Amino acid sequence: MKKYLPCLYLMLCMCFTQIAVAQTTKISGHIYDQDSQKPVSGVSISVKGKNTGTITNSEGFFELKSSLPATLVISLIGYARQETEVASAENLRINLVPAIEELNQVVISASRVEENILRSPVSIEKMDSRAVQQTPSANYYDGLVNMKSLDMVTSSLTYKQINTRGFNTTGNSRFLQLVDGVDNQPSGLGFAMGNLFGPHDIDVESAELIPGAASALYGPIAFNGMLNTRTKNPFEYQGLSAQTKFGINHIGDGTDLGAKPLYDVAVRYAKAFNNRLAFKVNASYLKGTDWYANDYTDIDPNTPAGNRGPNNPGKNQLNIYGDEVAQTLPNIGRVSRTGYEEKDLATYGVYSLKLSGALHYRITDKLEAIYQGNYNQGTAQYTGSNRFVINDFKFVQHKLELKGSNFYVRAYTNHEYSTNSYNTRALGQQINRTWVQDLTGKTVTPDKADATWFERYAAAYNGIVAGVTQQDHTVARSFADAGRILPGSDAYNTAKDRLIQTRGLAGAGILSQCSLRHIEGMYDFSPILKVVNFQVGGNYRKYYLNTGGTLFDDKDKNLTNGEYGFFAQASKSLWKDHLKLTVSGRYDKNENFDGRFTPRASAVFSPTENHHFRASYQTGFRNPTIGDQYIKLNVGPIIILGGAPVNSQGLNAYENSVTIASFSQFASAFGADMQRGTPFPQAVANNKDKLVKSNVPYIKSEKVKSYEIGYKGLISKKVLVDVNYYFSQYTDFMINTVVARAKSNILLADGSVNPAAAAELLGADRQLFQLYTNAADKVSIQGVSAGVTYSLPKNYKLNVNTTFIDFNIKNADPNNIPAFNTPKWKTNVMFGNAKLTDKLGFNVAWHWQSSFDWYGTFTEMRPGKVQAYNLVDAQVSYRIPSLKTIVKIGGSNITNKYIVQAYGSPAVGGLYYVSLNFDQLFR
């Protein structure tokens, strides 16, 4: 680590040079609404170029200390941001002008420095604290679905995954989520769990979304885009806030279980002392009943589509587990075991506990130190290669940050503790192996259970068992299921609990206690250089893996992985600020892969203050996740092997194997020769040349190049128009391939296939491997997103946006390309009025998207249709000023249409709620 941190060390030294003692003067004043001349509380007042700042009290009064002269930056959502020069310690009277919201928006994520959203060099969306309060969705995170380009997939009541611009999954490792600059992914999982471990609405200040590659500034995880959520600063948002929400879901869900309650309680308290020290604490708890995954469609790939259904003896039902185990029995046909419904295996009582605190200390008016700690614990269902229960999962974060007006140095750690999580499908299969009886009535061991069950089935069907009707699948299944333990019974619960605590192939439990440590910094040289804006930054992170050998080869080992990166960015405004040019570049290096350089260039042309045209060229890349690199899982007939070179040392899987396609051809031809009576050695010699030595490269990063043009502007200061077009090309997608390894060398010295190796591949010395590698195929996507926000008279607002995306697979092999999993069209319409009267407001949001095929590992990459659907969210709010309280009645999906967003995941219905929000009491 020492080798990679000289730049961060230099930045840290430069930071402390800013600590200086200057004579300060008390500045005070009052702030009023220009139209009503009433005092305005909660206004943020900061000194430009310094960390000094405060907020106004209920009388609109503020007071702070600063050296003079000073420039005060005054801002409040709903009012125009303004700067006031102060030359003397006079008592100020400042009038705030109601703002055109879209003209006043400031974003940070697009360039890592503050800039007006209209002049952002790339596409960016923002949800501010006012939008958080007004969202009709159940929470701010669910409300993100109304942003242009964003896709949202529900796996659980407490887990929703987001993505932009295609190649979507339910566990999205191509999308970066930051909360106050901290990567929000549990390192063992390799992706952020939606907002299960994020902030509660009560502490969210804003959320900024960058759709598309952001690797040039944020590194490899931001391949598809980035969401940057900022929480409320305790200096600016003081007092006690509390929210209580009661909801109800599962109304008319087609089951006999009835409607279920949902509870969500949150408290936040913040306090500042003398503009030097401030702290905040947050606590929230949500509890409810998860959405049910109860699609029992028969998806067995070995049964013709016309023969599938409830009467198919070999049925494999989507959300029933254990029936994946099947055999083709002689003279009977395909038969599958009787499975268990997900509702009897999963943990549908879900919850989310979030505790956090932060301490801010302003060392000087230009230097601030911050400590922040987060403790999260919760339960959710996750649809991956199986349905997983992320059960009582604990996620702990610590952050230390030192920042000034033009720099920061930040260090943080993420620790995950997963000891009760489990694989629902594996649980169903393993329970099925605990009770099977042989023909004498004796319960067999788990390793013999499946074979014995099929023997019983065949015996009953073929009439071998006395007193059992033959040639009847229903009777045969009933006989084979003798002794089956039923859900709810003591035996079932005992077996379930034991198997959840049993990790590895003999059980269903999952252990992960992985962590990461990260340090980064940035310095803005713009105030020094003046003629050009210039920023540099860098980071180093290290992963620490601990799954007890259940997933990685880390049992009794210190398995780690490190990576670092540096970036630089320069921008310059020309032609009297009508043209802004920005170039940036980043270099990243992971210890297992070659370094990558990712440049970005953009231009923003602003002929007038309200009209802005932009063009950009962006590149991105994605390093393999920790799982892609280090998984080493022996699942019996095959070993799943991550693509980091160190992970396969001594196994000879990449170096001495044959392609699975050539092995299949060889084995088939060899078998045909043997049936004709050809002696074994001769049959091997006749067909060995059908074997093809594999040439599987070690895994490397995925890459994208993207071109974008766009326009954002205000018309008559009432209509905001935002439109963009992009074209992206992708290469080196990560894929899996299967090979067969022999002990002897595959090839002889002359390049011919070794007969000894060919013979070994036919016997017990053969070992199959699933390897992680990359495909050479190229594909492209193009898309258009457009949005119009219309500020209507009397505070009404209408927002409409639509997104079109087109995937061109070109000549690529579909097996080499990850699933696109994105609707071609989606549209959002929002209409509301936060000030229908002085106390009453409302908001309605409509979301629609077209149908598409979903490909996922849960169904072994076989497609399942996600039907087109539309959702309506709505809320009505009532303010009680004397109590500083807002009462909100609303609902998500108020028409209660049960819709599936990813094939195999649950159907999501309506959720209706009443909430009380007490804001900034005792400030």
UniProtKB/TrEMBL annotation:
Residues 1-22 form the signal peptide. InterPro entries: Beta-barrel_TonB (IPR000531), Beta-barrel_TonB_sf (IPR036942), CarboxyPept-like_regulatory (IPR008969), Plug_dom (IPR012910), Plug_dom_sf (IPR037066), TonB-dep_rcpt-like (IPR039426). GO terms for molecular function: siderophore uptake transmembrane transporter activity. Its main location: membrane. Residues 119-225 form the TonB-dependent receptor plug domain. Transmembrane segments: none annotated. It is found in: Cell outer membrane. Keywords: Cell outer membrane, Membrane, Receptor, Signal, TonB box, Transmembrane, Transmembrane beta strand, Transport. Residues 372-892 form the TonB-dependent receptor-like beta-barrel domain. GO terms for biological process: siderophore transmembrane transport. It is a multi-pass membrane protein. Pfam families: CarbopepD_reg_2 (PF13715), Plug (PF07715), TonB_dep_Rec_b-barrel (PF00593). GO terms for cellular component: cell outer membrane. PANTHER family: HEMOGLOBIN AND HEMOGLOBIN-HAPTOGLOBIN-BINDING PROTEIN 1-RELATED, TONB-DEPENDENT OUTER MEMBRANE RECEPTOR. Belongs to the TonB-dependent receptor family. This is TonB-dependent receptor. It comes from Dyadobacter pollutisoli.
